[in-house]
């Protein structure tokens, strides 16, 4: 009471000269107003603090409301749930193969490709000295990594999921699946694309963003050789380009180099089950080599496949299941879209959102898609992943 009396200000009267505008009275008037509305101010302040807290808690942008996938950051939840499903679950393994593991310390691997690097050390030494292995700063600094793994399934067709997919921090795509012309259904953002030589898009620039990480999934030693030839070719071509410039005619001196490069690429052609691109216009700085550890985890822990399969019994995970496993090891939230094959009796249903092929095309594929469906359902039931399309 005493305090409020002391702060009392003279009555403001109406008239030609408004005393409230007098500089002398301004502070007093302000204090009176503050005094009068103290409750309201405290309320607004409390609301503001709650918003700040909520924003920090969500580790997200500072506004309401937010897109569905932006509402929360369930920090630690993926780790907790993944550990229930995956024995010895750890986030300690690098996502991409690193030169240091094959240079100073030769990390022995238990398995050959696709589950390990045993026997591929020498080529890796060469290949890793011309590739990068870091996770870009833009992904590392994310306080919450909300990831969408986009499968190539037909269920994305006419799904209108594009805008939603683009809202995720990390969008993982697979193989040669296009985005150009399908943006409304599948979006256009691609943070990472997993592929192998036979599934590399012949025109990577049209279907990726300039900063897309092009992640090679190695299945056989030839896959490393293809990548090495492509990357060395890029170097040679750019060198030739420099030499050619002054006269705009290749000098005879570069011909042996060009012939050498063509013969290397022709040698690399053999040993693939489908013709991979021989010229691949991608930025070498964006190329990474996936650590086969994630293939091992997918096969051994999610599909319970034996790591010592007899040569005749061939079964391996699909690239999509591998991508989900990878996401479980570095994302704070994993949503999937475009997963799910038609029933095996359904011979006419197309399997991709972008081309007219059926399950028949997968006859020699060495995948067990019904087994994988069980694994994906288990993850959905556990709430470890969520599905944006239907399954
Ligand atoms: C003929 C053949 O070998 N097809 C394989 C193709 C093919 O090599 C590439 O598309 C390149 O042309 O690749 C695969 O897969 P594909 O490229 O078809 O699809 C990528 C991933 O999406 C998930 N998917 C796809 C279709 C569908 N109806 N439901 C799904 O769940 C799967 O998880 C799948 O992995 C592959 O790499 O796994 C598996 C396919 O078996
Ligand atoms: C994730 O696996 C990829 C794709 O989904 C599979 O369909 C494909 O399977 C091929 C398999 O890898 C080939 N095996 C070897 C050792 O290369 C197999 O080879 C048989 C063959 C050989 C030559 C010409 C045609 C077929 O072919 C399978 C496809 O039919 O593997 C992909 C990863 O490479």
Written description of the protein model:
31% of the residues are buried. This protein has 391 residues and is an alpha/beta fold. The protein has helices at residues 2-6, 26-36, 38-58, 77-85, 121-128, 137-140, 162-166, 183-186, 204-207, 221-244, 255-269, 293-302, 319-328, 369-382, and strands at 146-150, 170-174, 192-195, 213-216, 287-289, 333-337, 386-387. The chain has a seven-stranded parallel β-sheet, with helices on one face. Residues 11-21 have a biased composition (Polar residues). Pfam families: Glyco_transf_29 (PF00777). It is found in: Golgi apparatus membrane. This is ST3 beta-galactoside alpha-2,3-sialyltransferase 4.
Average pLDDT, all residues: 84
Radius of gyration of CA atoms, rounded to a whole number: 29 Å
Main sheet record: 7 strands, parallel
Distance between the termini: 68 Å
Strand content: 5-15%
Instruction: Output the structural class.
Output: alpha/beta
Bound ligands, named by name, code or SMILES: cytidine-5'-monophosphate-5-N-acetylneuraminic acid, ligand LG5KNAUE
In the predicted model, the low-confidence regions spanning at least 5 consecutive residues are 1-21, 55-67, 240-250
- Count of helices? 14
Shape: globular
Instruction: Please give the order of strands in the largest beta sheet.
Output: 5-4-3-2-1-6-7
- Give the tally of β-strands: 7
Order of helices and strands: HHHHHHEHEHEHEHHEHHEHE
Helix residue percentage: 25-40%
């Amino acid at each position: 009471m005493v305090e409020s009396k002391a702060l009392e200000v003279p009555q403001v009267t109406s008239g030609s000269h408004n005393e409230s505008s007098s500089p002398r009275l301004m502070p007093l008037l302000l204090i009176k107003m503050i005094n009068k509305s103290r409750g309201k101010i405290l309320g607004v302040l409390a609301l503001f603090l709650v918003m700040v807290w909520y924003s920090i808690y969500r580790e997200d942008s500072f506004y309401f409301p937010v897109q569905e996938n932006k509402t929360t950051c369930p920090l630690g939840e993926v780790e907790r749930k993944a550990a229930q499903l995956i024995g010895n679950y750890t986030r300690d393994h690098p996502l991409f193969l690193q030169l240091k593991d094959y240079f100073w310390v030769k990390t022995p691997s238990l398995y050959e490709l696709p589950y390990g690097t045993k026997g591929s050390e020498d080529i890796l030494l060469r290949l890793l000295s011309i590739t990068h292995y870091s996770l870009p700063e833009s992904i590392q600094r994310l306080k919450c990594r909300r990831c969408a793994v986009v499968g190539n399934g037909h269920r994305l067709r006419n799904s209108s999921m594009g805008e939603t997919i683009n809202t995720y921090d990390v969008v993982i795509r697979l193989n040669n699946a296009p985005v150009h012309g399908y943006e409304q259904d599948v979006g256009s953002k691609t943070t990472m694309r997993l592929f192998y030589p036979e599934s590399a898009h012949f025109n990577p620039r049209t279907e990726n963003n300039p900063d897309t990480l092009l992640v090679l999934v190695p299945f056989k030693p030839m896959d490393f050789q293809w990548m090495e030839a492509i990357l060395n070719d890029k170097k040679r071509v750019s060198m030739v380009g420099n030499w050619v410039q002054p006269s705009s005619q290749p000098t005879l001196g570069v011909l042996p180099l060009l012939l050498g490069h063509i013969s290397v690429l022709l040698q690399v052609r053999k040993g693939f089950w489908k013709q991979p691109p021989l010229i691949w216009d991608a930025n070498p700085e964006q190329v990474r080599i996936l650590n086969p550890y994630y293939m091992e985890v997918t096969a051994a822990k999610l599909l319970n496949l034996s790591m010592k399969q007899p040569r005749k019994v061939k079964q391996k995970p699909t690239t999509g299941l591998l991508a989900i496993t990878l996401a479980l090891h570095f994302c704070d939230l994993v949503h999937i879209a475009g997963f799910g094959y038609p029933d095996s009796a359904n011979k006419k249903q197309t399997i991709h959102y972008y081309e007219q092929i059926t399950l028949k095309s997968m006859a020699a594929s060495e995948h067990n898609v019904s087994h994988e469906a069980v694994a994906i359902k288990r993850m959905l039931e556990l709430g470890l992943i969520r599905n944006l399309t239907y399954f």
